[in-house]
Amino acid sequence: MSDTKDHYDDEAIQSLPESVKLSWGIIKPSRRGPKGELSIPKIVDTAVAIADQDGLSAVSMSRVAGALGFTTMSLYRYITSKEDLLLLMQDRVCPPPPEAEPDSGTGASKKHWRAEMQDYVQFCIKVFRDHPWFADIPIRSVPMMPGNLRIIDWMLRIMRGFPVNDFEKMSFVLLISSYARACGMIARDMDLVIKAGDSFSTFSGLSYTAALKQLITESNFPDLQPIVMSGAYTGEVESPIGDDLAFGLERILDGIEQYLEVRRQM
């Protein structure tokens, strides 16, 4: 949790959701109950460990309290609802982004922005794979918690020298983050399938290639059928473009690069 002031008088700050205020340390838990033995980070870390092991459905205030050796009511003195706990868990597992490699005099990174955005996507994918429950928590608003905001700040740092306005930058953040989320969920799902005992061939459909070639006919699927027959659909033959998701990211970055070139010429 982020260090901040003990309290705020500003009405706008107080209007923030409870979970956001907890994440910033704006509100403090009740003084009642065990002193020094419980804390918000300890509660959240315990909930994360349960979710990592048994899934998000296993997380409850009573389960977390039991794992810590306290009553459920003790937890409510720190975090007032399970919904707030889930959001705090999500923010907790956002690791700090890597520090920039400053270029003398500019403060920008020495690394090319394309490589930095590729790192960003891989960073996000790892969060989904390390914590498979992460994407099971619905998005309810723009990010407002410190962990998530540090990740956005990283993307904006990559774009520090771009000849674009703030709205364009935020649109690029949404574009890259959405692709990273989609890739992360696919990687997460593949991990879960393999963990459950199936193979990569099952996940990719390779094991069912022969059956699909019979079912997907030219009359019913005129454009898909030749792709299935060529082996491209299930990876029956080696792809000349390599990894599909990496290929897709490269095309997105091509589009951004072309857009930047147009903006520089304006």
UniProtKB/TrEMBL annotation:
Matching SUPFAM superfamilies, A to Z?
Homeodomain-like, Tetracyclin repressor-like, C-terminal domain
* Transcription found in the keyword field: yes
Which keywords, in A-to-Z order, does the entry hold?
DNA-binding, Transcription, Transcription regulation
InterPro entries the record matches: Homeodomain-like_sf (IPR009057), HTH-type_TetR-like_transc_reg (IPR050109), HTH_TetR (IPR001647), Repressor_TetR_C (IPR004111), Tet_transcr_reg_TetR-rel_C_sf (IPR036271)
**Residue ranges: DNA binding:** 60-79
Domain HTH tetR-type, chain residue ranges per copy: 37-97
This protein's name: TetR/AcrR family transcriptional regulator
